[in-house]
């Protein structure tokens, strides 16, 4: 289909403003439904794929798995036939591109733009009579005020969090590796600089933990998996580098479910601080559990499909998943190149803003990162803001008490409430086929048999997912990326009608918004069966300030933020 030179120029300009993995252009909703209907795809046969069929397929895939492993993978391969059928049944016009593109190497990117006006620590709290451990659950933004005013020292704060990490780790299993020597040195340096008047900003002297997917020079980076238990790197990830430059103090590498799934890792299952008999959810299990339990000032995690939102919600913390391409993933384990995101788990919306201000923007390592400013001034006024809510989920009987309470909060705050529906396309099937990226990342782990050292032997564990990924056809992976383009177009069209939308943190929209790269945040919103539940706010691309504004309005109007686990 031919386009005019002016249209091509406008399209190139637009593509520079959004991540390449979701850069396929806008289209009106009506246009999405146009075009010839795709031929129906056959559903999976009764009983699924046979073991003989899988054995024969290995000859084409050039792998040789033992019969026991083929049998283990067979149910997931059979399930993928249904995912393939769902994706094949979506009509695609010829001009619909896949939701990814190749970007050749380019010169070093320019320095990050100034962020403009951003949130700053609140006025210094007036009391100095509290014991240091009484500050364990304070938000990082409040701790920053105390440190800057020299009411407390980074050395004392660091010692307190290290003590709590050690005291409760036998119950929660949040720590993979303590970085005590490094932490004490960084804390001493922070105090010396602050005494000398060299204050670096709100994270200066604040102890934090980072998910054990990020490299830190000379410190084990295990990815939560037994085959990588002794793995170390001789460089820091961009996240570690930028937080060090901001003066933050790294106290521990925190647990991740193995290879970024769930809360089970090679040593234990990370526990929920509200009920240690239950798991923390994942895969940012350690960051969520530690932040909620008052074991760190804040934590850094990652998300590919709910790995920040879900554990933060389950553990009663605040979790921010930024826009895809907002923060560099250099030095962080890859799971899916076109989906992985770096985010924050903390104890307040303001905390996530402080950390994102440090993490966001390009380096010369991750070419997906956009050079766009971020700033949020702490505003929480939503009067006149168009807040959408997913009508089907808010009307579900189980969600009714939470839904009524949430809608009333925003109604009283003056927001304009708009019922919405998510794109009617098979997001879950698309996401499942994109697991081919994880299969490519861990190809050697499967072919060498080291996959058998993973702890989770279940049908949906990472080992089985990686085995099954070998049998996702490349043609259907690319078709799934094209369907992803349609989903992205429909999500962008949705944000022409609302400024942001809300949903339970366990919403099906978690999958959809991860595919499209839109930012989201979860804040504590109550309890269900004695465990916390979260309210998720999702917003337009690169509008983290808007999701923070809408989330902060709810945070300020409710008292859930003051609830902490007794441990």
Write out key terms for the chains shown.
globular; eleven-stranded mixed sheet; 20 helices; two-stranded antiparallel sheet; single chain; alpha/beta; Amidase signature (AS) enzymes; 567 residues
How are the SSEs placed, and which strands pair?
Blueprint: H1 5-15, H2 29-32, H3 51-61, H4 67-88, H5 140-148, H6 154-172, E1 175-178, H7 180-195, E2 207-211, H8 238-245, E3 249-254, E4 271-272, E5 275-279, H9 285-292, E6 298-303, H10 309-315, E7 318-321, E8 341-346, H11 349-359, E9 386-390, H12 391-394, H13 400-412, E10 416-420, H14 427-433, H15 436-441, H16 443-447, H17 462-469, H18 474-494, E11 500-504, H19 509-516, E12 520-528, E13 531-538, H20 544-557
CATH class of the domain at 133-421 and 499-562: Alpha Beta
Mean pLDDT: 89
Strand content: 5-15%
Radius of gyration: 23 Å
**Helix proportion:** 25-40%
Task: Using the 3D structure, state the CATH architecture of the domain at 133-421 and 499-562.
Answer: Alpha-Beta Complex
Number of strands: 13
Biggest beta sheet summary: 11 strands, mixed
